[in-house]
């Protein structure tokens, strides 16, 4: 049997991990996946691609991962994975499909646990970031140009006077979203002012905390199948976000659960449309 290219929708909580990508002697999401696939199920030769290299502490609802194997039993994999990682959808993908190169857009959400920020100032400043720019000045320890396109930034007030910031872009770079959150919140607080454009700002930035950021989706139109065991595991994992039952963790849990149901519904609808189109 020849190997197939499978696309997986992977959920994880990043609290215990040093980011997604494999790092020597440090726990990572990719490291866990490779260990399961290589040593327990599918043998030593494993090729994995992924859509987003999330940082230490950052979570994901719809990370897209590809793996080349002869066959895959998602229910079996989910029983082997720890309680904070789950595969909740999967499909055979085209041979050319590479999650990093082929993903059309990445969609992130950040929850800002600060009050009394000027929403209109933040929204106006965010308009300067839309389109294609060199975002190098807003990234973390990157030497060359960082040419990226941001399609959409949405800033909303939520419960308790807090805010959510959503970013949709072709791709991002290390520290970019968390630095943009810091920039926009400091504009909203009045700490940074008298700018005609955010591109005038050349001062220091302090990346916003990672645990309030999650990847909602890494989108590409594929005909996924939903894994019931994976969905159940995701819901259980999200309900684990209750450390001290603080307002912050309750709100994070609420928003992640709402966004999970939304993306799963959208993915199911897309799969049905693709099925009817192809048949």
Number of strands: 10
* Number of separate helices: 7
Using the 3D structure, state the CATH architecture of the largest domain: 2-Layer Sandwich
Q: What are the segments in which pLDDT stays under 50 over at least 5 consecutive residues?
A: none
Give the helix/strand class. alpha+beta
The proportion of residues in beta strands is 25-35%
The arrangement of helices and strands along the chain is: EHEEHEHEHEEEHEEHH
Structure, described:
- This protein has 279 residues and is an alpha+beta fold.
- The protein has helices at 29-42, 74-80, 99-102, 119-127, 176-189, 228-238, 247-278; strands at residues 4-12, 48-50, 59-69, 85-92, 105-112, 131-134, 147-157, 163-169, 213-219, 225-226.
- The protein folds into two domains: 4-102 and 220-278, 2-Layer Sandwich (Alpha-Beta Plaits), CATH 3.30.70.580; 105-211, Alpha-Beta Plaits.
- Strands 1, 2, 3, 4, 5, 6, 7, 8, 9 and 10 form a ten-stranded mixed beta sheet that branches.
- Helix 4 crosses helix 5.
- The chain is globular and about 65 Å long.
- The two termini are 26 Å apart.
- The relative contact order is 0.18.
